[in-house]
Amino acid sequence: MYDVIILGGGPAGLSAAIYTGRAWLKTLILESAVVGGNAAIADQIDNYPGFPFGILGGELMENFRKQAERFGAEIRMEEVVHIANSPEGKKVTTSEGEYLARTLIITTGAKRRELDVAGEQEFLGRGVSYCATCDGAFFRGYPVAVVGGGESAVKEALFLADIASKVYLIHRREEFRASPESVDKLMKNEKIECKFNRVVKRIEGDTVMRRLVLQDVHSDAEEVLEAEGLFVSIGLVAAADFIQGFINTENGYIVTDEHMQTSAEGIFAAGDIRVKHTRQIATAVGDGAQAGMAVTEYLKE
Ligand code: NAP
């Protein structure tokens, strides 16, 4: 029996574990993919305080992991498939087995939204990717495209410009959601060509992706773009399919109060998986710290 099981090992989960570990609570973190979550596969992070010249996402998250483990957190690489209340406690079912805890903190965050166009699934891993830092190196010297207009898409385009022969950035509007600093770098980069007011209509190829068919959102005119890779970066969707009903959610995101308590007693949530306005590493850390302290107080009572 654990005092607390933290579902998800990203910035919120690791921060929560630092607090519960320091309170001597027996803490287990369950992570399905990468310790550090989306932040661990980010390239340069310039807006996390304490690093005046920026830090690589992987390095920052490795520090978080070491700090959580220093205070006793146990980390297991297992996917959570179900959670339930049982007479013995909160029961967590994973791909490998079952665990019991007195409390849970859900920090499973958000995953990349899919485009939902023809060819996306067919060419997944054969041209289509959701992570430039993971897969960009396969496209050295080839033309690629990025779709999206947020901070992630602009950062991915800038990252790929150092690798690919040419980068097309496809955005359905003319204004970006990305920070002015990133947009300025983008506009100055001669290897990046912006394709505004266009959407990806379909992805074509043979054994691998070869081209994209774009559509102008105003005129409906189609255009063919020769590209060997497409990096889909169109925002995030909640990653908590295992909740299945008994915790209040909105569009898949978990509703909490300011102490990170969910609608289910003894179950807390923190970070990007919460209904909230801003999804940043810094805000996830704040949530995680709050959830760790709230669990500590709850167990004392
Ligand atoms: P985002 O800010 O939600 O932007 C998503 C972009 O994709 C928008 O430009 C949107 O277009 C476009 N889009 C959405 N659905 C689409 C569709 N079906 N077809 C075509 N385009 C579509 O997502 P994000 O860039 O992944 O960022 C998520 C959060 O992480 C944000 O809060 C961001 O600030 C943060 N972030 C921070 C950093 C950092 O270094 N600090 C890095 C990356 C991300 P519209 O603009 O027309 O809606």
Folded structure, characterized:
By secondary structure, the protein is of the alpha/beta class. It has two domains: 2-112 and 236-300, FAD/NAD(P)-binding domain (3-Layer(bba) Sandwich), CATH 3.50.50; 128-232, FAD/NAD(P)-binding domain (3-Layer(bba) Sandwich), CATH 3.50.50.60. The longest helix has 20 residues, at 281-300. The protein has seven helices and 21 strands. It is elongated. Strand 12, helix 6 (180-188) and strand 13 (192-195) form a beta-alpha-beta unit. The chain has helices spanning 11-22, 37-40, 57-70, 132-135, 151-161, 180-188, 281-300, and strands at 2-7, 27-30, 44-45, 55-56, 74-76, 80-86, 89-94, 98-106, 110-112, 128-129, 143-147, 166-170, 192-195, 198-205, 209-216, 222-226, 229-232, 236-238, 249-250, 253-254, 267-269. Helix 1 packs parallel to helix 3 (57-70), helix 1 (11-22) runs parallel beside helix 7 (281-300) and helix 5 (151-161) packs parallel to helix 6. Strands 1, 2, 5, 6, 7, 8 and 21 form a seven-stranded mixed β-sheet that branches. It binds NADP nicotinamide-adenine-dinucleotide phosphate. Residues 45, 47, 115, 147-153, 155, 172-173, 177, 199, 233-236, 279-280 line the site of NADP nicotinamide-adenine-dinucleotide phosphate.
Lay out the secondary structure.
Elements: E1 2-7, H1 11-22, E2 27-30, H2 37-40, E3 44-45, E4 55-56, H3 57-70, E5 74-76, E6 80-86, E7 89-94, E8 98-106, E9 110-112, E10 128-129, H4 132-135, E11 143-147, H5 151-161, E12 166-170, H6 180-188, E13 192-195, E14 198-205, E15 209-216, E16 222-226, E17 229-232, E18 236-238, E19 249-250, E20 253-254, E21 267-269, H7 281-300
Parallel strand pairs: 1-2, 1-8, 2-5, 8-21, 10-17, 11-12, 11-17, 12-13
Antiparallel strand pairs: 3-4, 6-7, 7-8, 9-18, 14-15, 15-16, 19-20
This protein binds NADP nicotinamide-adenine-dinucleotide phosphate (NAP).
